[in-house]
Design goal:
518 residues, alpha/beta, Lambda Exonuclease, Chain A, DNA polymerase, domain 1, Nucleotidyltransferase, domain 5, 5-stranded mixed beta sheet, 21 helices, 15 strands, globular, disordered C terminus, binds iron/sulfur cluster
């Protein structure tokens, strides 16, 4: 009788492969999976340093997990999947305990080849074509959480493995960052995976790429971003509007609202049943601001510390925004650069604006080495207490959270931190509360650039600074630190610029509003 390896026939192997990665990307974006197969590769973006770092970190994580116990990999020529599948079968038939980088192949009814390369197959007792043992798949991922796309891919491996060994694995595993192990419930995820796979195959058999939909979080890590963004801009696609998520887009489409202009003219009562009154008024105001290309005062009151109780919109107009944006003779603007993998806040940048003496001095409190974090934390405390009455402006809540984290980590007495906290003023929160702007995102970059502020080094981003700092630690090249400091100083200056603009806008607008009311 022929063995499983001898019986294996992969003559159907097609050029178009649906792989674990393709399915994972499909789950995140249908268009991405289509472009990864049919797209014009000359239009792909150059790999960003940050993505390269993610890939390297992911590889290192996988190696570290695999190194914990002995394992055997199938040997085959590079990308010769047929040879890889046969070599994997041989190892399975031999009953090897742990098989890494296995190759599993399967053909669909449409003749499309499915290829899964689970990080690890682990031998377990059970019945399969090999004898009284079978295998279960394990995927090793760098993420902290068992995201749905990870579980879909684990179920995909399990499905192909079931075909190869003719026995459904009882379970599948994920090993996540910090080596946390997670069990994938196959009875739940196999049917879900099948749905996603069917949709994915249908998409790949279409002639046209799925519609562009720009979602910053998802698209910023995608190598098709520039080409998709150019299309979205040329179409004035409604996904460029802040607040239009994929599910809200479906709601808007159902109502026949597919352009920014039509959204600007839609009544809140039309949208309200689908998205609720708050979201409806936000979306319409956002569209109006974009169409009119101007800042619009929000009329809905968002509670801000110190403003509680002012629920009347007219009162809110004249009260919350100015009072919650103090202008002082000395103001501090604070921004942090961090290295999340090292759990390190390595640059505490503080811009001191002294209006009395008309000076602007930037203090880059920099940990040249991770062990210097305690020292820059102390320098930060000394600096902010030199100006005990100065408000500390920042953008987003990360700065306050970090102050609390560092205080706890370095045992700073709470009495020292408690009077500091009320001095923090989150400019992002104030902008979001007070005004709607014709921007694609309420990030500091988009807001400040809309006001005409430019960073000195146009291509540098916060995530790139993480790579630059890592490179500094490896190379000792001081020019990298200079770049990071300049970037951080410009973030502080952008926050200053934004805060000044907001104060002026509110004074002008509220003045007008009062005038109209009188
Ligand atoms: S840029 Fe965005 S829309 Fe385009 S393929 Fe990538 S994730 Fe999808």
């Amino acid at each position: 009788m022929l063995s499983a390896v001898e019986q294996a026939d992969f003559s159907w192997l097609e050029a178009m492969l649906v792989t674990d990665d393709l399915l994972l990307y499909y789950k995140r974006c249908r268009r991405r999976a289509f472009l990864d197969i049919y797209g014009d590769f000359s239009q792909q973006d150059k790999e960003q340093d940050f993505i390269l770092k993610l890939r390297q970190d992911s590889f290192a994580h996988r190696q570290a997990v695999l190194a914990i116990a002995p394992h055997t990999s199938p040997k085959y020529p590079h990308r010769d999947w047929e040879a890889g599948a046969k070599a994997t079968l041989e190892l399975m038939q031999q009953g090897v305990e742990r098989i890494s980088q296995a190759v599993l192949l399967m053909q669909t009814a449409d003749g499309i080849t499915l290829l899964s390369r689970p990080d690890l197959l682990v031998k377990q007792p059970g019945e399969s074509i090999f004898g009284d043992w079978m295998y279960v798949p394990t995927s090793i991922k760098l993420g902290r959480r068992p995201k749905p796309e990870y579980q879909i891919v684990a179920a995909f491996s399990a499905q192909l493995l079931a075909t190869v060994q003719r026995a459904i694995p009882r379970t599948a595993h994920l090993i996540l960052r910090r080596h946390d192990s997670f069990t994938v419930q196959l009875e739940r995820w196999l049917p879900l995976m099948q749905e996603v796979l069917t949709e994915c195959l249908e998409t790949l058999l279409q002639e046209e790429a799925p519609e562009v939909f720009i979602s910053r979080q998802r698209c910023s890590l995608c190598h098709w971003y520039s080409s998709c963004y150019a299309i979205a801009q040329s179409q004035k696609h409604i996904s460029l509007l802040p607040g239009v998520t994929p599910s809200r887009y479906r709601d808007l489409q159902a109502l026949g609202v597919t352009t920014v202009e039509s959204l600007a003219e839609t009544t809140i009562s039309t949208l309200e049943p689908a998205v609720g009154s708050e979201i409806a008024s936000d979306l319409v105001l956002q569209a109006q601001s974009t169409v009119q290309k101007r800042a619009l005062l929000r009329e809905r009151h968002y509670p801000i510390l110190g403003d509680v109780g002012n629920t009347n919109a007219a009162t809110a107009k004249s009260f919350i925004n100015i009072n919650s944006l103090p202008t002082a003779s000395v103001e501090l603007y604070f921004d942090i650069e961090a290295e999340p993998d090292l759990q390190l806040d390595y640059l505490l940048g503080v811009l001191v604006i002294d209006r009395r003496n008309q000076t602007e001095v930037f203090h880059p409190l920099l940990a040249e080495h991770p062990s210097d974090e305690a020292s820059i934390w102390q320098q930060f405390l000394d600096l902010v207490w030199l100006y005990p009455n100065a408000p500390i402006f920042h953008f987003s809540d990360y700065e306050v959270e970090t102050v609390k984290r560092l205080a706890k980590l370095y045992g700073t007495p709470f009495q020292e931190i408690r009077p500091l906290l009320p001095r923090f003023v989150d400019v992002h929160q104030r902008v979001m509360s007070a005004v709607t702007l014709p921007v694609e995102s309420y990030s500091l970059k988009h807001l400040a650039r809309w006001l005409g502020f430019e960073w000195r080094d146009a291509g540098v981003t916060g995530s790139q600074c993480v790579c630059l700092y890592d490179k500094w630690l490896k190379t000792g090249d001081r020019s990298l630190l200079d770049l990071i400091q300049r970037y951080n100083e410009d973030d502080c200056r952008a926050t200053y610029h934004l805060k000044n603009w907001l104060v002026n806008f509110l004074q002008d607008t509220i003045g007008d509003a009062h005038h109209e009311e009188i």
